[in-house]
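[Structure tokenization] protein backbone as discrete codes
[Encoding] learned vocabulary of local backbone shapes
[Protein] chain in single-letter code, fold in tokens
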Amino acid sequence: MLTLLGPPPSPGIRHAGRVRPHDACWMLWPQRPDTWRFGAKPAQQAFVEVATAISESETVYVGVNDDQYENALHQLPAHVRVVELSSNDAWMRDVGPTFLTHPDGRLAMVDWEFNAWGGLKGGLYFPWDKDKRIRTKIAEMLGIERFKAPVVLEGGAIHVDGEGTLLTTEECLLNPNRNPGLNRTEMERVLHETLGVDKIIWLPRGCYLDETDGHVDNLCCFVTPGEVVLSWCDDETDPQHAICREALQVLESSTDAKGRKLLVHKLPQPGPLFIEEDEASGIDRLSSSHPRRPGDRMAGSYVNFYIGNSVVVMPLLDPTRDEQARDILQGLFPDRRIVGVPAREILLGGGNIHCITQQQPKRRLP
């Protein structure tokens, strides 16, 4: 067995960050009827568009439950790799591996604990048994080391620049529904030892009403070491207004692991966006899952994008702001093509493009 317990023992092993070159991107296929409306058919089309866009840039693997395997195979382009990989839902960023690289280029991964964003105290669905096995299965598929971490953590709760700096939020990582009794110092020790990071920047909160309890990947992310993009709201009556300014104050007063002051780019917030009557009516309502009701506000953000080797795949969410957001991202990624994908169907499920993807760094075989 390749499974190892505890923190990675090799000096220099670390999270590569998402800007470094990739060998592949991993996704999961949506089908859960209490998350995705109308049997997930509209969401499946959105996932196909995301996978197709990313596949211009790198290999895409889509994990599918057996009962949807043939359907996914027919809907996805032939060059997208469809693999049988059972899951409870389709949020690969959170249930999939956090990849690490050894100094010699070999891959490894972290297997965090997962409790569906809060377990029985605020979690989004039950059970989550299939989700918990995904990292083990991918480690076996790739033949890489898997380090079992002792804390509950989802991939969307952290952003890493690849040079030793990590972004996260107190709202999420210090939430008692994840790791009760674990304080900030103890969590920092786990992150340092497990991911090889040297500096952790704590933002107070994530986006307003984000059902993940404030994942940082919906609010702020690295675009390159030393530079971040922050979701921004100018409406003083919007609760997101104060959240953005809290984050900006922390970011502008912080330095990264290399001692650089952070350059902060603002990305306008779409909307605000709300679930419409017809959108809510198509979703199964179960006591074991998070309710999605007409009029509920969604935590829409353009920051929730995927950086590929040659493309950046961004969500299209608001016709009045989509082009402005696209232009800003093109300026931040001049060497990549910006691909906009209609993503309201993904947002209706509670996340967006970054949430449904997980990059696999390029590796060198020993």
Remarks:
- The chain has one domain: 3-361.
- The first helix runs from residue 41 to 54.
